[in-house]
Amino acid sequence: MLQVAPQIEPAIATRDLNLWYGDFQALKQVSVDIEQGKITSLIGPSGCGKTTLLRCLNRVNERYGNVTTTGNIEILGQNIYGPDVSLIELRKSVGMVFQRPNPLPISVYENVVFGLRIHTPARQQKRAALDQAVETALREVGLWDDLKDRLADKATSLQLEQQQKLCIARLLPVKPEIILMDEPCSALDVDGTRAIEELMWELRGRYTLVIVTHNMAQARRASDECIFMLLGELIEHRRTEDLFLHPRDPRTAEYIEGRYG
């Protein structure tokens, strides 16, 4: 008798997702499944809705006010707009890295344990456990050897590439399932960009990564799947290689060939 492979629940599933900033509709009926453990790039011209979609996934859009959202988003099977959802817990599970590195103006050590200090009762914050969390997170992002003797240094004194890696390390001690990245290499030089892309591949599998990028070469190099958006609509979602080599929609082909955007 044939064995039926078990269905793997998507990390993220949106259904008929709409979002308005005041009277302007930024997202229109977006329905998509994003697989666990993969890197998915959101691409499209400026103003197409990709950053808005990214910010929906941990509800950070709601910070901006005058935002209306309809439809459904499930993260690992849970409706993130459910009445019992804690935004604090959601943002523990769905961490975010921004365009420019934004380490806190405190020590490297305190940056890494910042989330643990917020989410762990003070009586449970044992120094040995915090020390181990710092070492584990910095090793995971490839910074331990460089920074193990500089843990007391101010994080803002680090090189930009190190600052961005530290921002990723800051997410890890609270054990996120998903890491969102909004153009994480836009402030970096070629070497810094390469280092962050290599780190993304190392994190892939242990985490689900969703990245917004304007850089077509980066999307092609550094993602398993691509989602092309235009004017708030999801136009095409395929394996990265297939989308770039054999786009199904002529609008996708025009964009990746540089005819607009």
Question: How would you characterize this protein structure?
Answer:
By secondary structure, this protein is an alpha/beta fold. About 35% of the residues lie in helices and about 25% in strands. It is built from ten helices and ten strands. It has helices at about 50-55, 85-95, 110-120, 125-140, 145, 160-170, 190-205, 215-220, 240-245, 250-255; strands spanning about 10-20, 25-35, 40-45, 65-75, 80, 95, 180, 210, 225-230, 235-240. It has a six-stranded mixed sheet with strand order 6-7-8-3-9-10, with helices on both faces. Strand 1 (about 10-20) and strand 2 (about 25-35) form a beta hairpin. Helix 3 runs parallel beside helix 6 (about 160-170). The longest helix has 14 residues, at about 125-140. The N and C termini lie far apart (about 50 Å). The model has no long low-confidence stretch (mean pLDDT about 95).
* Beta-strand residue percentage: 15-25%
User: In terms of structural class, how would the helical and strand content be classed?
Assistant: alpha/beta
Low-confidence stretches: none
How far the N terminus sits from the C terminus, by CA atoms, comes to: 52 Å
Please give the radius of gyration in angstroms: 19 Å
Largest sheet: 6 strands, mixed
Query: How many distinct beta strands?
Result: 10
The outline comes out as globular
The strand order across the widest sheet is: 6-7-8-3-9-10
Give the SSE order as H and E letters: EEEHEEHEHHHHEHEHEEHH
